[in-house]
Amino acid sequence: MDSILNWITYIPLIGALVILFFERDSRTIRYTATAVAILDFFVSLVLWFKFDPKLTGEAMFQFRWTTDWIPSLGVKYDFGVDGIAVLLILLTTFMGVIAIASSFSAIEHGQKEYYVLLLLLQTGMIGTFCALDFFLFYVFWEVMLVPMYFIIGIWGGPRKLYAAIKFFLYTLSGSVLMLLAILALYFFNEGGIPFLNIKGLGNPATFAVLQYHKIGYLIPPTLQFWIFAGFFFGFAIKVPMFPFHTWLPDAHVEAPTAGSIILAAVLLKMGTYGFVRFALPILPDGTRQWLMPIVILSIIGIIYGALVSLVQKDMKKLVAYSSVSHLGFVMLGMFALNPMGLKGSVLQMINHGISTGALFLLVGIIYERRHTRMIADYGGLAKQMPMYATMFLIAALSSMGLPALNGFIGEFTILLGVANRSMVWAAFGAVGIVLGAAYLLWLYQRVFWGPLDNPANQNVRDLNRRELAMLVALVAIMFWIGIYPSTFFDKIEEPVNYIVQKVDPSYFNGQTNVGRVLNPAGRAESPSHIELAEKTK
Amino acid sequence: MSSSDLVYLAPEIILSIGASILLLMPVIWQGSDRSAKSFTLVVLGITAISIVVSSHAVVNIAQSQQLQAMFTLDPFSIFFKLLFIVVMAMIVLLSDDFLAEARYSRWEYYSLLAFALIGMMFMASGMSLITIWIGLELMSISSYILAGYFKNEGKSTEAAMKYFVLGAVSSAILLYGLSLIYGVCGSLNLLKISAAMSTIITNDALMFGIMLLGAGLCFKIAAVPFHVWTPDVYEGAPTPITAFLSTGSKAAAFAVFARVFYVGLHDFQLGWSNVLATIAALSMILGNLAAITQDNVKRMLAYSSIAHAGYLLLGIIALNSFGLSGVLVYSIVYMFANIGIWSIILMLRRHEYAGERVDDFEGLSRRAPLWSFAMVIFLLSLGGIPPTAGFIGKYYLFAAAVQSGFGWLAIIAVLMSAVSMFYYLRLVVAMYLKEGRQADVAITPALRFVAAVCLVVTLFLGIYPPPMIHQVYEATKAVAARAAITHASR
Question: Where are the alpha helices (DSSP H) in B293-368?
């Protein structure tokens, strides 16, 4: 049981190695890959049932598995998950099955390499969520890049080379800056940086994330600002926040369907997960100093993403830009820095994974049949493909936040949290929701309603059984979260309190620090720094 | 000089005898030169064994005063000597079929490689600036000849000429620097120089001397602005020699760099660190940006090696434990990744100079899936992407820069390493993503062996680096103590 996280992480890798020995392009490859993904999903369900959401503090990180890796650097192989990571891992294993099953008819050449890379990607993503050691985290974080690069670059659309390289370089530039931030933390905890007159704590060298959760508040505000900057570039590019989002539409449009699904459902969550897990709890002052810029960028992202979606002619591009808008929402909820906002933010990460994943899958399905994604080529599809139209409607409604579906719960909780902090921010958020309804409903109207006048559309098949099964599973989860979200909220209650406790300790004393945040000086003296100042004297 | 000193010098003596025999072989042996490869490998093997044996034997043997002032057989030098021998052995394996195809004599070629190796070994062991200089000259002169070894080809001759003229000038500059340092400090021994320097606060002649010394060494490692020879020489020289210049020759120069600056000049850090930092920043920026525009793989790798010299300089500038270890760790990982790449280029290099253009890699993934996978791993390692060994090396150097407070340099370094992926990916794109023609390959057992070794080492050290880190720590302990830097168990 203790090594369950290892199993979940490495089952896809083992599967990939097995597939390497298969014959090229044989039918068995697909089925084996699907079987591996399904097996991994079932194993990961153990987390759902065995996870104890009541534990607090460090015990909150469960299923710990620790061993020395590079002792001389203080690097440990340290796996452990809290409620947030459990949900994201389940999302990953679930969407992994969907992604692989969605590729059956889409991928015609190089099947072996394709499924091997998808499974490798799966290992990288799950490992990233499990890692509680910065070094290990960084390794998994980078490992994800290479398979995704190849998936876009080999099986992508006409501009695949451009999109793949752009994706790779953008994310790599961000993550190397994050590496510098990690190094600065490392030296602060250990010997300090004498050259810059930064005194270290003199602790033994370590990369343990939980250790940094403990000592983070001791870091002087200026250093926090710079460390946060490093994390910001690493994570904001991945999210992606405006103005770092330009790689996303290219990557999404060119990627094969499965690539888009994984990219939207899981890879984008890496950025938001990074903020929740590292930037916020470790750098309370840094968070406060960066709060306004991030909130402003999130709001711009929400509005801009929605407006750009409104004018897209390409369905896939529309869904891609809607991600920019939705992720802006996730960031806004997170930076409300109260439990409500954070809870909504985490749930919205899952929601976005399910809803946008479903939308990309749906776009992929129609693309396979008609080989066009242009909205203008469609119209009246509801008559020809009733099942498809129904599924699309549910996914779209879920994405725009209709009550009884998952999106509503996430967006509503975020708005509650944000309104608690600032009505102005909440107002901008609400505008985003309205715009979201606009572009999705307009899309639906243009594609499914009206006369079925394009002859090419008159013989399109409706969903087959495989496609229907995938979509029914996705829709079931949408309704589950929409109707009974507390099974999910229970899991993230304690982690969220833990993070708020770290990033804004005064919140639980009944006094929020809204005033402090909006203080033009940008940073207020919190007790911890007075203590630190005394210490250094 | 006492007879017991011979034990200290045994590896160099043995190798000199071996190299001389290799040189005489065409005269005394009238048959074919097919056995040259095995003979050279045997000589290298015996030298390696003698290094290990001497290093154990010298524990109980006192070194005479005279030799001590000039030569040391400490763990640091042993580490580098063994590394050089591994490089040489792989270069020999890379060269053999290449020479056979080009119909040039092998005996002379291998004896020149062996002489270069002697020079490198003296560089690693030198405790006196003059020993180091002589070692450097021996290595350089052998490499000038090797660069022009294909004497019937214009490009090769041109490369040798450029390399020789610029190299001779840089040697003169270096020697002038040494004389200035000698004039101020009154000794050429690194420990005495260090002692003398601790009493000097500022001295223009000394500063000038150090700058000239640095310039001479920067020429050898091909750092900007002393890099202009690199692309032409790398392009023109026979490919295995290019591989040698970009790994062995460079690692030897860095061994000297580390020893001279950590042991001899550490008290003068404020004087030289900013100048070297500028050189490092320029090398990383110019090397990487220029590499992007190259269509010739050899030139691309030449510019990339300029950039890598910049990264390695971080380890010198930082003057801390991470930096010192970083130079050694990076030398290892860079060497394996780089030689791996050259071995794959040589696989392609058949039928009219294939393997020199990026297009020549097109379709390699279908012709040789395993070796294109290996190529991807090597390129990722050069780019510093985990889980390859290159990441561990880059990690050490970036950590060194952050810890020493050169934050701006660290930011340039990480961003430039991201930029470098752009041109490394061009080769990946050609191998995997281009639907072009099929690459021509001729995979000989020797090339396959070298590539496989490099692949295994690059992956193993990336996933489980502790053994390498332990060796590096042992090798650098004494040097770190001389530089008075805390060298905790990393």
Answer: 297-318, 321-348, 364-367
